[in-house]
Amino acid sequence: MELVHILSPVIRHNVPGRTLHAVQARFHTLIQDFVADEVFVRNLRLPELCVITELEKPIMWFPIRVDGAIQWVGGFTLCQRHAIGAR
To answer: N or C end of the chain: which has fewer CB within 10 A?
Structure first.
């Protein structure tokens, strides 16, 4: 079996690239607006939503915790309930 075949992602939920990019951009903006701390946002690694197409249950959780905080400040859940961009 070829290594490329083994390492290739299995797409379980087909989402057009343009649509996925638009959703990701809005999701990132939502997170950045919630945090509202320029230094924190600059160092924040935002999630790549392309992995949601590979998940059996297309749900992604992105927790937010500020440095020094003992508990999570909050977070965001993104879930694909229906075909995105299908009309």
So the answer is: C
Give the residue extent of every domain in the chain: 3-79
CA dist 16 and 84 (Å) reads 8
Residue range 12-60, pLDDT digits in tens: 988 899 999 999 999 899 888 887 777 777 788 888 999 889 988 888 8
Q: Whose CA is closest to 74, among 83, 84, 63?
A: 63
DSSP H or E stretch at residue 3:
helix 3-7
Q: Is 78 exposed, middle or buried (0-12, 13-18, 19+ CB in 10 A)?
A: middle
Nearest to 81 by CA among 15, 8, 28: 15
